[in-house]
């Protein structure tokens, strides 16, 4: 990450967080957004993004992508998995206000990181909804099948599953996302 991107007059106070307005865009176009600081107590609507920093294979591949911050006229390096999450979550017609830890918290500043970790409970509890990015679909993991099945079960109640369906759900929950400690807080505190 470019060290000076988040070091400016926008240092955060105790009740403040940065939010990313992820600008609308078509698939394949450069990721673009702008940052602003807000007070949590002001009731601003936003959606935190819950994801893993590493790719599906649970390894940090060292690949970085860029997010263009139009309000600062600079590029910010972000990890590959963060970029994939933003690409999936970006809307082609409407800007989206989100909170992404790797972008909205100055990872180069241990004091800021510590203060923001203390706010995590409030960040997720006050959110409009939490967006979850599990990673990209692959033929081996059958995530789409598993998600469809879980949706069906939640709407219709219990159902009988064949071996392939059981396998797809089992593999879904083996993804690195579900091994994270923070998932409990992120999902449990979400309003929706």
Q: What's the gist of this structure?
A:
Pfam families: HET. By secondary structure, the protein is of the alpha/beta class.
What does this structure look like?
This protein has 192 residues and is α/β, with parallel strands linked by helices. It folds into 2 domains: 3-135 and 176-188, no CATH class; 143-172, no CATH class. The chain has 6 helices and 7 strands. It has helices spanning 80-89, 101-104, 110-125, 143-156, 163-172, 183-188; strands at 16-22, 31-39, 47-50, 64-69, 74-79, 96-99, 131-132. Strands 5-4-2-1-6-3-7 form a 7-stranded mixed β-sheet. A hairpin with a 4-residue loop joins strand 4 (64-69) and strand 5. Helix 4 (143-156) packs across helix 5 (163-172). The longest helix has 16 residues, at 110-125. It starts with 15 loop residues before the first strand and ends with a helix. The mean pLDDT is 83.
List keywords for this structure.
seven-stranded mixed beta sheet; 2 domains; 6 helices; single chain; alpha/beta; 192 residues
Order of helices and strands: EEEEEHEHHEHHH
**In what range is the share of β-strand residues?**
15-25%
Low-confidence stretches: none
Q: How many domains make up the 3D coordinates?
A: 2
Radius of gyration over alpha carbons?
18 Å
Helix content: 25-40%
Largest β sheet strand count, sense and barrel closure: 7 strands, mixed
Strands, total number: 7
Mean pLDDT: 83
Number of helices: 6
Shape: globular
Side by side, the strands of the main sheet go 5-4-2-1-6-3-7
Oligomer: single chain
Class by helix and strand content? Answer: alpha/beta
From the N-terminal CA to the C-terminal CA, the straight-line distance is 32 Å
């Amino acid at each position: 990450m470019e060290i000076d991107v988040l070091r400016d007059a926008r240092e955060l106070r105790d009740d403040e967080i940065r939010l990313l307005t992820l600008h609308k865009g078509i698939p394949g176009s450069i990721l673009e957004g702008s940052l602003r600081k807000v007070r949590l107590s002001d009731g601003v609507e936003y959606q935190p993004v819950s994801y893993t920093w590493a790719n599906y294979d649970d390894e940090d591949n060292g690949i970085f992508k860029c997010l263009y911050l139009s309000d600062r006229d600079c590029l910010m390096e972000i990890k590959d998995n963060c970029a994939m999450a933003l690409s999936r979550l970006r809307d082609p017609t409407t800007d989206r206000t989100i909170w992404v830890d790797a972008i909205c918290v100055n990872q180069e500043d241990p004091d800021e990181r510590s203060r923001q970790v203390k706010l995590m409970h409030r960040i997720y509890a006050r959110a409009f909804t939490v967006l979850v990015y599990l990673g990209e679909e692959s033929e081996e993991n059958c995530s789409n099948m598993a998600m469809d099945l879980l949706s069906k079960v939640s709407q219709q109640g219990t159902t009988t599953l064949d071996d392939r369906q059981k396998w797809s759900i089992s593999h879904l929950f083996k993804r690195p996302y579900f091994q994270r400690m923070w998932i409990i807080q992120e999902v449990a505190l979400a309003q929706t």
